[in-house]
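Recall that a protein's primary structure is simply its ordered list of amino acids. Everything else, from secondary elements to tertiary packing, is in principle encoded there. The following example makes that idea concrete.
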Amino acid sequence: MLSKIPTVHRLLFILLMLNLATLLLIEAIPAAGNLLFEVPVDDWQYKVERPTSEQPLAVLKGYLQDGPLYIVAIMILLEISKLFLACELSAVTSITILGTFFVLYSISGPMVSSITDQTARDFGFSAGGAKDINNFRANIAAGYLPKPSDITYEGLFYDYRFETGKIASLSSDKPPKLFAPTWSAASSRNPLTGETEHFLAVGLSSQLDRVAAARKKLNLVVVLDISGSMSSPFNQYYYESYRRRPDMNAESAKITKLQSACRSMIAMFEHLRPDDRIGIALFNHRSHLAKPVSTVRSTDMEALKGHILALEPTGATSMEEGLELGRSMLAPFSLCNPDEYENRIIFMTDAMPNTDDTSESGLLDMTREMARNRVYLTFIGMGIDFNSQMVQSISQVRGANYFSVHSPAEFRKRLADEFDCMVNPMVFDLALQVQAPECRILKVIGSPEADLATGRIMHVSTLFPAPTNSDGTRGGIILLQLDRPMVDTWLTLTLSYEDRSGTIHDAQEKIILQAQSGDFYDDNGIRKGILLARYVDLLKETSTGRHGIRVAAAKDTDADESGWSYWERPGRKLQVSAAANDALSVFRRHLSYEAEAIGDPTLLKELRLLDNVMAIIPAGQIEN
């Protein structure tokens, strides 16, 4: 019988058996024991290359682990070739068979499980994009000049809760709606221009309870920046500056951006469930697979935390490398049941790439491609010099959002209430058409896609669930500034959106905008939204102007002859012109009055920020 087997097959078979036997002794038997007794595995792979006495054994294990794959692949290819020749199959048939095999292989992992229930409570939505203006506040506190992208409408809105309009009562013969917007109207005189402006607020509400909106199981990859710029203190710029934030305590000021990122990552682990999958990728000038994707239950989480805390910064910054590795790690899970699993990359960086493709468009194209395959992105910006401009356009992509971290302790508190929200997009491609005689949308306020709105259409790529209590929903508002006649006007509002299962929903509603003399607000929710929108406009105009607007392509990295890439952000001293003092003073009085009228004491922190900005103006330049 053996004489009939070709010699090459016999040699390959003997080599395979020897390889597998050796591998069984040093690897498979301990692994089987761990699996049998459900012992979590420390599968960390990233190591700083240092010569050790164990290095020869590690190299041998690497060859032994890869050897069977190559041997079996050669044997399979030989047999497949013989089979195709014997059956006289056409090229098309052969390609179809091979393609089917690889598709089945890619989805062979576990596919189904139940969604873990959560505590039932009402909930609302907030728009994707920025989830705070922490970077703007930190730069002002330290005396640095913020970028215009550091402060956004949706980021500031998420610092506050909004209760706008009233949710329609549930009908016994109709199921509750996932997205049930409410409407409020207002006419308000702008304190800086004197013009009366008209607004319509879209309250981002739902008729479902929290259990119905429980997050799915996660296939999660955390991509961490370990480049040299992550070595700078948390309260200081890496490039060209020595000013520090005076509002940080000594302990927080000592830690580096990387240390803060590592602590923040470990805080996230507290919110993972046993059936969630977690993988870790690292990047500097190249990418490093630190931990393969596996379930939390099968991972030695304590060992993982120790490895993460031991990381050290080094090298240049290639965000492209890190994002590409994160995407490839989730590729085997892209065909998992979308009703059961959410695929997400959490990308932790100071967003200052300086090697490989540093263009905004290149990273944007990668993010869009991932979103088409249901892999979504969360940016977490680290440090006072986090370049928000780099991620602003990327965060407009379907399913994307971003946060800024300026204190690991504060971030831990946010995660306690918001982790399930930040990884759980529920409404996609929300579109609103306003139809009315001589009425059109001038501006959309509170969505990162606001620049896409023209005339009669509002578009929002993603809504995330948001914490909700008796005071309202965090960030639960989008404002439409309208051009409308000063007569009673009927609006026909046509709404459409896609849920996370891919089902398209649409609805139509009619509301009346009444003509009112003087300032008029349907409720305090829209009043607060208008106040904060004007506040953002003022700060962008007075406190971020020296950065200007980017006009050059990102590839023009050395246009200023500094040797830095476009995204490497130097610290610049905050300067506010004396000409802005009048506008700041007028708006400060307006904000103080409105905060009292609205009854929200949390607005008072904006008064303190205005005081900090006004204190920058040299006293001798202010006209009395």
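The two ends are 107 Å apart (CA to CA). Confidence is low (pLDDT under 50) at residues 49-55, 103-121, 546-565.
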